[in-house]
Amino acid sequence: MSRTDSALSHFECVFTGETYDTDFTGFPVEGQLLDPKYNYDELDITRETWERRHGSMWKYREVLPIYDTDHIVSLGEGETPLVSSDRLADEVGVGRMLLKDEGQNPTNTFKDRGASASLSGAVQQGIDEVALATAGNAGQAASAYAAHAGVDCHVFVNHQAGEIQKHMAEAHGAEMHFLDGKLPDAGSAFMADLEENDRYSVATFHTPFRHEGKKTMGLELFEQLDWTTPDHIVYPTGGGVGLVGIWKAYQELLELGWLDDESTPALHVAQSSGNAPLVRALESGSEAHTVWENPDSIARGVEVPDPGASPWLIDIVEESGGTGVQVTDETAIEGARTSARLSGVEMCIEAGVALAGAMELRKDGVFDADDEVVVLNTGAGCKSATHIGRL
Ligand SMILES: *Cc1c(COP(=O)(O)O)cnc(C)c1O
C-alpha cells in the first residue's frame, strides 16, 4: 500500500453541522447529507505536480477521500477534453464556447467519476455489497466499477430506462431490480429494500463520495483553462451531484489561494420544462423546491422530481451569481443536434438541455457577447442517438 497523501479530516453534515470520523460507514443518515472535509493547511501540493500527473481523476488524490492507493477503483475516468468551438460560439453569440466532453469516460458519462470515488470508498471501508436507485447512467457506472472491484451491486431501475444502460449494467454482473413507473418508484423500492437488507447505498447524496468524485470536473476545468475560470458554467441538473462537485472545486481553489472571490464562475441550472423543480424554486426565490408532479421528459438523467439536496443547491447557485433555465424536449433535441452539426461533439439529450439553456440565457441577456461559457456534456451522444437522430 502507498499513501495517497489525502488531506481528508472528517465528514460533516451540510444541514446540521454534525461531524463523523472518516471510518464511519453508517450511511445514509435520515435527513443528513455528509460532505468530506480536508485539512487544507496540511496540503503540500503545487499546480506543477498536478499538471505532471496523468491517467485518471485520481491525479487530484490529495483532495479526494481515499487514503491508500490500493483502495482506488479506477477505469481511467476523468481527464476528459475541453473542446472549444468557434462555430458554436458564433451560433450562441458569445465570445468563447467550451464543451467539457464527459462522454469520453469509461461508461460514457460523468457518472463514472462518482462511481469511481464511491466504490473506492466502499473498498476502503471493507464493504462488499452496494446498491442504488438510478435513472440508468449511475447504475451502469456503479456496476462497472463494482465489477472491477469485485463488489456485488444491486441496481434499482425502471423498465423505461435506456437500453444501453440496462443491458450494460446486467452485463457487468449487477443484480437488476426492475420497477414500473418513474425514478421515484425505483427510489421507494430501493429505500424499502435498504431497510431490510443492510447494503451500502451509493445512491445520490447517500454517500459523501459521489459528489467528491464529480468535484474533479471543476479541478480539471481550472487546470485546462490554464488555471483560470470561465464566466459561466451551464449544468444539466437532476439531483445536483455534479453542481455541488464543481462548486466545491472552486471553494477549495479559494482555500488553496489559487483563486480570488471575484473570479469564481456563475453556475447555472438547466432543466427540462417537463420537470424543473429547481428552476421553479430559483425563479420564485424559494429556499427549497416543491416536488414536481407528473415529471415528463425524455431527458431521463435530469428527470428528478424531488431533488433532496435542493436547499444546498439553491444556495450554491445564488451565491455563485447563477440562475435557472428550462427548455422543452424539442429544444433540447435541437441543442444536441446543433452541437453535433457545428462542433462535432456528440451530446446526450441531457447535455442538449444545457446547451439549449445556454442559448436561452444569451437571449435573456444573462450572457454577454464576449463571455466565456462552459457547457457540461454530461454523456455521449450514443446514449441518446435514437432521440437525437431523424432517420
Ligand atoms: C445523472 C445525469 C445528469 C444529472 O446529474 P446530477 O449531478 O445528479 O444533477 C445529467 N446528465 C446525465 C447524462 C446524467 O446521467
CATH topology of the domain at 82-109 and 209-388: Rossmann fold
Radius of gyration: 19 Å
- Strand proportion, as a percent range, falls in 15-25%
Helix content: 25-40%
Structural shape: globular
CATH architecture of the domain at 82-109 and 209-388: 3-Layer(aba) Sandwich
CATH class of the domain at 82-109 and 209-388: Alpha Beta
- What is the CA-CA span between the terminal residues? 53 Å
Report the mean per-residue pLDDT as an integer: 96
Read across the widest sheet, the strand sequence of neighbours is 4-5-13-10-11-12
Q: How is the quaternary structure best described? A: single chain
Number of strands: 13
Structural class: alpha/beta
Low-pLDDT windows of residues: none
Bound molecules: pyridoxal-5'-phosphate
| SSE sequence, one letter per element | EEEHEHEHEHEHEHEHEHEHHEHHEH
Protein described:
The protein is α/β, with parallel strands linked by helices. It has a domain at 82-109 and 209-388: 3-Layer(aba) Sandwich (Rossmann fold). 37% of the residues lie in helices and 16% in strands. It is built from 13 helices and 13 strands. It has helices at residues 47-52, 86-92, 111-124, 137-149, 163-171, 183-196, 210-224, 241-255, 277-284, 310-320, 329-342, 349-363, 385-388, and strands at 8-13, 19-20, 34-38, 82-84, 96-101, 129-134, 152-158, 175-179, 200-201, 232-236, 266-272, 324-327, 372-377. A six-stranded mixed β-sheet has the order 4-5-13-10-11-12, sandwiched between helices. The protein has a four-stranded parallel β-sheet with strand order 8-7-6-9, sandwiched between helices. It has a three-stranded antiparallel β-sheet with strand order 2-1-3, with no helix packed on it. A hairpin with a 5-residue loop joins β1 (8-13) and β2 (19-20). α3 packs parallel to α4, α4 packs parallel to α5 (163-171) and α7 (210-224) crosses α8. The protein is globular and about 50 Å long. The model has no long low-confidence stretch (mean pLDDT 96). Pyridoxal-5'-phosphate (PLP) binds at residues 109, 111, 137-138, 204, 236-242, 301-302, 348, 350, 378-379.
